[in-house]
Amino acid sequence: MHSIIPSHNGKYLYASDLGIDKILTYQICRKEDTVKKVTEISTPPGSSPRHFDLHPYGKYIYSVEELTSAISV
């Protein structure tokens, strides 16, 4: 994992994994004091997502790709 940011509501964590070209979503389970993977967002193969940010309304994720120097939405 390279960068991890919380959702605006604090219920999820988003983590970029440049080795598998995905941004992973984890649900924060406060009662169990754990996190649980719930979804994966694929970026273009070989792009290596590095840093990303969430749209203020949570509708989009903007990802800066390390190897292609592209921005994915």
Can you give keywords for this protein?
55% strand, 7 strands, 4-stranded antiparallel sheet, mainly beta, single chain
Commentary on this structure:
This protein has 73 residues and is mainly beta. It has one domain (3-72). The protein has no helices and seven strands. It has strands at 3-6, 12-17, 22-29, 34-42, 49-54, 61-65, 71-72. It has a four-stranded antiparallel β-sheet with strand order 1-2-3-4, with no helix packed on it. A hairpin with a 6-residue loop joins strand 5 and strand 6. The protein is globular, with a radius of gyration of 12 Å. The model has no long low-confidence stretch (mean pLDDT 90).
What is the number of helices? 0
> What best-fitting shape do the alpha-carbon axes yield?
globular
Please give the alpha-carbon distance between the first and last residues. Answer: 19 Å
Could you give a short account of the major beta sheet? 4 strands, antiparallel
Number of domains: 1
Q: Please compute the radius of gyration using only Cα atoms.
A: 12 Å
Mean pLDDT: 90
Instruction: Output the helix-strand order.
Output: EEEEEEE
Major sheet: order of its strands?
A: 1-2-3-4
Task: Briefly note the structural class of the backbone.
Answer: mainly beta
Low-confidence stretches: none
Helix content: under 10%
Give the amount of beta strand, in percent: over 45%
Total strands: 7
